[in-house]
Fold each of these.
Amino acid sequence: MAIDIATIKRDFPILEREVNGKRIVYLDSAASSQKPLAVLDAMDDCYRRYYANVHRGVYTIAEESTAAMELARAKVARFVNARQSSEIVFVRNATEAINLVAYSWARANLQAGDKIVLSHLEHHANVVPWQMLAAERGVEVRWIPLTPDFRLDLTDLDELLAGARLLAISAMSNVLGTITPVQELIAAAHAAGALALVDACQYVPHVATDVQAWDADFVAFSAHKMCGPSGIGALWARQELLEAMPPFLGGGEMIRDVRLDGFTTNDVPWKFEAGTPAIAESVGWGAAVDYLQGLGMDAVRAHEVELTAYALSAVHERFGADLTVYGPQDTAIRGGAVSFLFDGIHAHDISQVLDEDAVCVRAGHHCAKPLMRQLGVPATTRASFYVYNDEADVDVLIEALAKAQKFFEI
Amino acid sequence: MAGLEDLYREIILDHYRSPRNRGELDAPPAHKVEGFNPLCGDEVVLYLDVDPDSETVRDIKIAGQGCSISQASTSMMSAAVKGKSLEEVRQLTRAFKALMSIHESKLEGDGEGDGADLAAELSGVRLGDLEALQGVVKFPVRIKCATLAWNTLEQGIDEVLTSTP
């Protein structure tokens, strides 16, 4: 089933918004996506009809809110093909999911001299928690480099993985768009005796995801990049890993019993969900999953592949060598995040001029400074596409870029 | 609505395209100081030749990379402080920062130029070309781009003075 873009655009009320007298063209979904009415309505309905704290009261609306949150967990679990709902731990965002693994699993299992393998294209969220661990524990961090065509360079993968305890890798770069060979990487990690964590927060919103097919151990992703609300994300992990891991944050919900001399922990996943969770946000996330599944993730991916191909060829035709795209040209191995630089014009200046035409793009280092250093650029401009973008949006982008180029070359 | 021409005055674009005092000084004897804007990855490198006896900025060279506002501001700063006494530099720094912060607190006001006049009044110095940067305050996220050079300069001068016996 193909995407009906006109209908989809109407599903997102914010896309009606005008800035500077022009309808916004939202091309920053890699930072955060917009929300369809279905999500807004679901959250509104929760707050208006049945909001109460979860797993507590025996009154009707408390039962309803608990059931709604657990239903959302089940939806998210099915969306990534988890074996069971209890493998989905609700957290604030993908960053917290990775930190949970770093604080709980890694600090319980890693010693000085143990090795963790990352790559040069990681987001800071999948770099800094491991650097903090390295500083605290004397764990060694190793890096998978990039090829000149913006893929992971797997030439020395086996050497890098030798003796490693964990491979922590992004499934899709938020800067380059590159889709990494996750399954192959995980197989190599397991062969070396390492566990594998996948930062999938750019991947899950755009490509049908199967954590079992990946054979992953930990997968981090968030709701806000997949049409859901901000403030909630998930750590998926194999049930037996979650059961063996010590708790992360202490407090309510994560306990079974508390005595003066200690506590025992609740069952997985609640063991890792201390404190009142993001209740309405979980409901909104469930609605976002329904929305995306209604469109079909294969159709979502096909739409974005087509649109990205259109954008890559349009910028090349219009700007030629004046504009450099940092990322693969082959849409089979990339997502819809397109980072670029004009020769001699800083990314921030481009972005500023684009705002005049209500074109929303991101400029900067995209929380991936090690990668920017590898690329040898201080910043890029990034346009990123989602299911509600179309070729007309790309055309507006191109015209606005031409205007920016003219403005700075006068 | 603030337009692009408020932000990108011709003199700013001129400093961006043809930065003044671009280059390096041998450090030591000159003092090298770097400043970063983590938001956009702007980088400013200053080479300061400060004479501690006469308390003057004998020479200054600038390097680095970044957006037009950060780089133009660095160029304009270097032209403004070269040959000046440290006291004059401090006055300029205060006045420039006032220019940036006064507008920040009254963004909705339409009193263009008030901030500059007030800043000059406060410090008793003329900002000259630097006033061209006042349009930046209508674009709050870019203020840090404009102040980076001055913050880096302040840091550099502090470092020079504390390392001088």
Amino acid sequence: MTQASRKNKSLHSSITLQMTGISKRFGTVQALSDVSFTVRSGTVHALVGENGAGKSTLMKILSGVYKQDTGSIEIHGRPCTFDKPEQALTAGVSMIYQELDLAEHLTVAENVFLGNEPAGPLPFTVDYKAMVSKTVELAKRLNFEIDPKAAVENLSIGDCQIVEILKALIRNASIIVMDEPTSTLSESGAERLFEVVRHLRDQGISIIYISHRLEEIIGLADEVTVLRDGRVVHSELVTKLDIAQIISYMVGRELKEFFPARDVKIGEVCVKVEHLSSDGRINDISFDIRSGEIVGMAGLVGAGRTDVAGAIFGVQKKTSGTITIDNELRNITSPTDAIANNIAFLTEDRKRTGLCLQLPCTWNITLPNLAAIGMKNIIRPTRENKIAEDMAERIGIKWLGPQAPVDSLSGGNQQKILIARWLLANSKFMIFDEPTRGIDVGAKKEVYTLLNQLAEQGKAILFISSELPELFGIADRILVMRRGRLVGNLKTSETTQEQVMHLAAVEAN
Amino acid sequence: MSRFMRQLLPFGSLILIICFLSAYEPDTFLTLNNFMNVLRRSSVNGIIALGMTSVIISAGIDLSVGSMLALSGMTGAYAMIAIGGMVPQEGALVFGTLVGIVAGLVCGLLNGVLITKLKLPPFIVTLGTMSAFRGISYVMNAGQPYNVPSYKYLGSGVVMGIPVSVVIFAVIVAIASFLLRYTRFGRYTYAIGSNREAAFHAGVNVDRNLIYIYTLTGLFVGIAAMIATSRTVSAQPTAGIALELDIIASVVIGGASLAGGRGSITGTIIGTLLISFLRNGCTLLGISTNVQLIVIGAIIIAAVAVDQLARAKAEAGQTG
């Protein structure tokens, strides 16, 4: 379709979805304020914005996961209220999340018809033949070939997404929301997906397309709406915008968080990572960090930032590369080695890879440090509790006591338990992966202060974050990752959020 | 809910059973002799349950303990007989005892290595070794027991009025408590059971610790096996059939969670004694062993159900 006809279509087609004046508040955080969002039938509407801009909240309201505080939703001109996700599904809204939601062991056809199986000739049976033929027919309408009898677990991620789309079509979806669908796809996989999306659009279905990859949006979308700080800052036809303009609308979030000042004393090179690769997920990554330096790492979801940390820390296998700390080559094949070599790693998912939730706070704090606090052979609980209490006092953990289970603490305090753990380890090289995710503003500020203190003590810090403002507020230098490669190594004072976003989100030619 | 509260229920039940039996059968139940008898019977199961406690805390399971008991006993007794003519009798008995204990340790080590190196679920590995160990026990002497008539000390010996087996049980209780509460091994065991990924990311050598856990259990089973052999002065290839279920029951009644991360030595002792006293009481009251099975089954389900309920309530209180 030519640019001109795309433009015409957007202007003249009828309105499928009209969200008006949507506001939503979580505790003290105003996630959305007075958001209005219009999607026309048979168009691809891109929704962009930085992490925390409110995209997911808006989509969760549309799909009935959250209920808006104020505002209305109309679909095909009919007002809708969704109290639960099933109601949104019935109204024709289908969500395709990043983590796909398929029954792995069932076949393609069984997944497509899950919950909507056609009845067979006998009671309590299903018409498997009809499911298979209907699946093939639907796929053909999208110009796509898929084996309806293949087990989903054997499909590529791209094909799984197509199964999700077919599932949406069976439910007569008129609006399909796709959340970062290409973040886990290869280039050719992405191309095939775009083909399918165009076919869907030509059949009159509206697609809300969430992505950080801006050139994708330029190539695929008809309209784009930019959110920032829970508000719509711009909504326009894609043909009237270029990537630089979109980026300028996205970034420049107000620096709500106060970033404490730091006495910067950058010393000698402390950490040297050279030619680090891991299993095709990251490729030839080299950088160094000086003592007293905070190096930020930016990149989109799936760019391989956590893989860099994992490969350094021995969580995953390195296929090549070396790590040098204080001019000494370190051989690290497991987290045990990494800790012994003075490295700390605060992981991004504190529930999955961080905490033992039912166990006491003290135990969680001392877990990697028993040898370091002189309890290699025999644990002395009284002294151990004292050490944990001192740490808790130092960083202000609110708990019922050192033996209280960690799951009795709030999210921010749970995060502080992990920070206390790595402070106690007193490592030379500290990796923080999204340390402020899911904690409130006050706790965030305390984390920033701590990072500063650590840097002042001469630690080398790698600070991974998806929030550009905090990277710019804290880091001395910013590394930018894209698709498993390091594409930027910039002094914070000499770069802009626009430039970093451009490196992270736009494919180099 | 505090650890103390969690154990209150099984402990309360234990006291209740003892009071009830004391009131109904004061002449037969409430005697020192009977109590020693119950303790002596508990010692074999209790020692194995102590090992099983660390396995269950680590979110694992060991189904092979019953077969391991038979195999260790058979190996120990075989060693006694084989070396019998060559050394003084006492030397042969000590040697055989050590061989039996080492046999248990090796069985446990094998479980641990298979679980970690082949990355198989403990349920599957120990289901397999349960069958294999039993098979070896039968093959060793063509299904016949080894008789060791002079091997009496561990089973019926007495030290200062206390049965030797009870003394050994007490010593192992102390060792197991110490290991779980005051060593890195114990701490890592809880951590692995609570969240294996988190333990790994905190530098815990998960595989090595798991091997230690299963080996320790094997060692305890080996010791229990020699006590059991001594009690009957023969090693039976049929010893310990379905024993694993009793052991798991004791540990779970004691408040351990099969999902891992939760359990204690105190709880396991209470769980073991609860089942022993129940058996003893039923026998004294003339309730048949068949009916005992029904009663014990009901108790297992009731204990876990009440525990779950109490925890759900505690959690609701926390958030609500």
